[in-house]
């Protein structure tokens, strides 16, 4: 997979390093000569250019990219890069970094963003995830379909503890994608029984989050 990353600062270089280790082809773009540090990520391609300029993106052959990541420290730049990548070059997947949480509402499909990653929101979510059991934690927002990646750790008193995945009437517009059980990562199937302490990851419509939290965290008793 070919991935272009706009912004070769610490964030962009870290993303590039991770993706290179996973066998992907990486192009780092930055307009600041001081940011071009080939020796830090020697296996990546480098381009000294302004990622907000069409001529620069032509040179980067953005139409060949499967993914574009707008990872600069400037939200305005990230929005422009996202919009150009999607509308001018038809890039299938555009991921954008949100630096200021107040700007998060802008990072949506209208600006070409498929996935918006807010570092402050993600850090606070991870803190909540570490200390919360039975509370739904929103980890990531997807622009398409108003869906979120959410996590909930199943508490011991949950009504669904011991219930098979296939026997649960999940809310509409939700999908259980992963069960993390201790050190294991499980792909759920209908025969798997939920256990107290399971970390459950869902892709869910925002309008269904409260319903999903109620289903998983409350032990219901018969009247």
Automatic annotation (TrEMBL):
Q: Which Pfam families does this one have?
A: TrkA_C, TrkA_N
One example GO MF annotation: potassium ion transmembrane transporter activity
Write out the GO cellular component annotations.
plasma membrane
Q: Which UniProt keywords apply?
A: Ion transport, NAD, Potassium, Potassium transport, Transport
Where on the tree of life does the source sit, at the highest rank? Bacteria
RCK C-terminal domain: residues covered: 137-218
Its name, as the record gives it, is Trk system potassium uptake protein TrkA
Protein source organism:
Streptomyces chattanoogensis
């Amino acid at each position: 997979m070919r991935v272009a990353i706009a912004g070769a600062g610490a964030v962009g270089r870290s993303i590039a390093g991770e993706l290179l280790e996973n066998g992907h082809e990486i192009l780092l773009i930055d307009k600041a000569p001081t940011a071009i540090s080939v020796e830090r990520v020697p296996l990546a391609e480098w381009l000294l250019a302004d990622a907000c300029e069409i001529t620069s993106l032509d040179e980067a052959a953005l139409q060949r990219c499967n993914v574009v990541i707008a990872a600069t420290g400037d939200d305005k730049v990230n929005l422009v890069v996202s919009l150009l990548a999607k509308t001018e070059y038809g890039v299938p997947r555009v991921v954008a970094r949100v630096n200021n949480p107040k700007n998060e509402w802008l990072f949506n499909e209208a600006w070409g963003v498929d996935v918006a990653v807010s570092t402050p929101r993600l850090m606070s979510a991870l803190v909540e995830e570490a200390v919360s059991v039975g509370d739904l934690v929103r980890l990531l927002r997807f622009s398409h379909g108003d869906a979120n990646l959410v996590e909930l750790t199943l508490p011991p008193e949950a009504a669904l503890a011991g219930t098979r995945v296939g026997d649960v009437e999940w809310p509409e517009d939700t999908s259980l994608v992963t069960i993390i059980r201790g050190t294991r990562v499980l792909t759920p199937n209908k025969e798997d029984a939920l256990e107290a302490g399971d970390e459950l990851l869902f892709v869910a419509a925002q309008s269904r989050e409260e319903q999903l939290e109620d289903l998983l965290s409350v032990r219901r008793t018969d009247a």
